[in-house]
Design brief:
163 residues; two-stranded antiparallel sheet
């Protein structure tokens, strides 16, 4: 079992226990709505968005027709806290701006979001995200929804980390 994933699940369970709210309801109320993230949701929900509003994942796993997060069913506790959500570039930019703003986290806890970062994220259902940030405010987001050769993609992402 991946230790980080287990830690994220534990954190999600603690959020529910302490707040008395569903994990995603807590995130939506305290982070997503204040950040203006109206196109971010939990897998298995449409959030009143039409099917056409979603990018179709290119696999290697395909779930639903079309292969989009609302068709993947509710998020399992196997990934809750570390995944099971969808978003857009605009929403992610708003999320990070909100975290860096000092409106939701104090300086000590928001500092990590104001330091240089390189992140790689994705899913077996066909979505990959590479993102970088530096303290001058430069950001790069690269979204991919079809990856014909995952080995080459991993090498490309690792090379981009070094930039």
């Amino acid at each position: 079992m991946d230790r980080a994933t287990a830690e994220h699940r534990l954190l999600a369970a603690l959020v529910e226990r302490v707040s008395g709210k569903d994990y995603y309801a807590f995130l939506r109320e305290n982070f997503f709505d204040p950040a203006g993230m109206d196109r971010t949701g939990e897998n298995g929900e449409f959030r009143d968005l039409p099917v056409e509003a979603f990018a179709v994942g290119g696999g290697p796993q395909f779930v639903g027709d079309p292969n989009i997060p609302p068709n993947w069913g509710p998020t399992s506790w196997l990934i809750k806290g570390s995944g099971g959500m969808y978003s857009t570039l605009g929403d992610l930019r708003g999320f990070y701006a909100y975290l860096r703003s000092g409106k939701v986290l104090d300086d000590a806890h928001s500092k990590i979001f104001r330091q240089p970062t390189v992140n790689i994220d994705g899913s077996d259902r066909g979505f990959e995200l590479f993102s970088t940030y530096d303290p001058e405010g430069n950001e790069v987001f690269l979204f991919l929804n079809t990856i014909p050769d995952r080995g080459k993609m991993r090498r490309l992402m690792r090379a981009m980390e070094g930039l």
